[in-house]
Amino acid sequence: MYSWLRKSGRKLILDIISLSSEPKPGIHILNGHFLSLDDHLSNNTFYNQLKSLLFHGVDYLNIEKAVEYIENKRIPSDKCYVAFTFDDGFEECFTKIRPVLNNFGIKAGFFINPNFIDGNEEYQRNFKNNIVYTNKQPMNRDQIMILVEEGHVIGAHTMDHIKLDIDNRDILEYQIGESKKYIEDKFKTNCDYFAFPYGRIEHINDMGVEIARKYFKYVFSQSNYKCYYSFEGKVINRRHFECDWPYRHVLYFLKEKTLTC
Fold first, then answer.
1. pLDDT, tens digit, for every residue of 52-66?
2. Distance between CA 208 and CA 243 in Å, rounded?
3. Could you give the domains of the chain?
4. pLDDT tens-place string over residues 150-200
């Protein structure tokens, strides 16, 4: 009951304060997970969200181009660009989100957990019930391969979706390094993108960032979204969203950003 009241209250507040929202210039990387917790929701929900954002002055970038612009500090002062990533590798990223992205010509980034993809029934059940708290199924290898062939980016999200705020170097090396090796071996594609699980700055430590940057060209959080970077320029920040959010709520979070925080 408390959770429902909190969620309803947050939605009501956002409904009110987002009424006059307009997108702010810059490059915004939005990160989601699935179409909706409501398994029966129409794919048109995400389509309508993207169409409404476009109508209100948002333009879309492929994730690789967005990262290139941010890294080269080519930040527009008069245009709002949005790129998309999706964490955890849920099946409906392929079956429900991919068709909408393709309809708009958008290439997104999908960050996967290899052991969730290949895990047996017991592993996947524990992953869903005790780690990501949803009944969503994982993509399979064939679906991920199609994403690669279509030009989407497959990134790593650790082997098992663990918090990287630990001081055990061996575990960090395995969780981070092996996830890159898996993607490159199984899908015959370079894996330069890594997003650490849970996404808040406190969910990774300096050692975790160091190891992630050793293996990957780009490392992403899901935090501190008014700044382009965290950890002194080593981590690119994303903003959480979901495909079923009212478009006005998304516009509200497309705020002014800075390269130096």
1. 999 999 999 999 999
2. 30
3. 25-253 (3.20.20.370)
4. 999 999 999 999 999 999 999 999 999 999 999 999 999 999 999 999 999
d(CA 47, CA 27): 21
Asked whether the beta carbons of 248 and 18 are under 8 A apart, the reply is yes
- Mean pLDDT split into 10-residue runs, the chain, 261 residues: 53 75 94 95 94 97 98 96 98 98 98 98 97 97 98 98 98 98 97 98 98 98 95 97 96 92 80
CA atoms of 10 and 50, how far apart (whole Å): 22
The whole-angstrom separation of Cα 153 and Cα 84 is: 10
Instruction: Write the burial class of residue 119 (CB in 10 Å: 0-12 exposed, 13-18 middle, 19+ buried).
Output: middle
Query: Residues 83, 61: contact at Cβ < 8 Å?
Result: yes
CA distance 181 to 144: 15
- Measured CA to CA in angstroms, residue 222 lies from 147, 165, 197 at distances of 22, 15, 9
Q: What's the token pair of residue 46?
A: 């995400």
In this structure, how many other beta carbons lie within 10 angstroms of the beta carbon of residue 255? 14
* Backbone phi and psi for residue 210, each to the nearest 5 degrees, phi listed first: -60, -45
